[in-house]
Amino acid sequence: MASRLTDAGIRALPIPVEGNRIFYDSAVTGLGVRVTAGGARSFVLNYRTRLGRERRYTIGSFPDWTVGAARAEAAELKRQVDRGGDPLGEIKAGRAAPTVADLCARFEAEHLPRKRPGTQTVYRQQIAAEIMPALGRLKVVDVTFADVDGLHRAITRRGRPIRANRVLSLLGGMLNLAIRWGWRTDTPARGVERNQEHKRRRYLSADELVRLTKALDECSDRQSADIIRTLLLTGARRGEVLQARWEDFDLTSGTWRKPGATTKQKTEHEVPLSSAAVQLLAGLRQRAAEGAEWVFPAADGLHRRDVARPWARLCKAADIRGARVHDLRHTYASVLASAGLSLPIIGQLLGHTTPTTTARYAHLFDDPLRAAAERAGAIITGAAPAEVVPLPRNRG
To answer: Which CATH superfamily is domain 7-95 in?
Structure first.
């Protein structure tokens, strides 16, 4: 039977021999004090949701909560229930809400397999090394702008500003998926200020190319040397070369059909091959095993994964500093620009889908333009004889 609870009365409530016992308040329906066999006392509220589910909500322990405070809290909770709320259900839902670790796991299971193998490797490494240690335990719905910005700043302070930007992009994409999956309604990654990036303009000079060629000839790792030569002669991306299959090449017509699975744009890209590239590939084909699938096979039966270490050794042997494997692609573009080819032609050979992507190579025209300007200046000042150029007749 319920009776009006008082602070003094709660202290005098009997302790059960085992388990617990609840003593209800006559002033607020459903409010009671639970007394355990250990002597602990706490306020609880029994209520029924609109769907008819019975709940028992723990308000707090006595004497941290007084009777007056517990009655006020119980009244507020009952008003929430009357409005269709379920305080205990919301707590349980919060506890069961997905964490950033859950987000990472689902991203890796469902979304990551759609990416290229190289991208998968990079993303998994960034998730394991950066996102999980910093945010893994947080509920996805609780991640704030400050959390994301703090992670970006922490990586930046380690001297990795570009990596910080890449991790931010990855995390932002994952949080956008969380919105699609109904795990939250907005993305806290929006508005985080990225570190300034300067596009690399590194390409090998003529002297560096000579030294690299000599180092390639002397390299004991023949396959790695051939991979570097192929990159130089085609301007292809590293992944395109490493994943190249013999079925993709027509050495008779001198063409390479790159499948969409290997290109950055995920679209098929067919390019002509120079005679030097055809000669290199023809030699590789003659030495390949019968029925070989990959141009550059690995010991496990798949394709070669990387050439980072061999490239580092080659650069050391050729006294080349500050050059990445990808800079061989820039070098190929620089040779095309120096030969007077236009940006649209360069873009087609490199497999660009938009002119803005090729525009980053516009600076490579500086040298031929400067040479043309010097030639014009020499002619005008009389330092060199003027060249007579026949003009077409006006047929109008």
So the answer is: Integrase, DNA-binding domain (3.30.160.390)
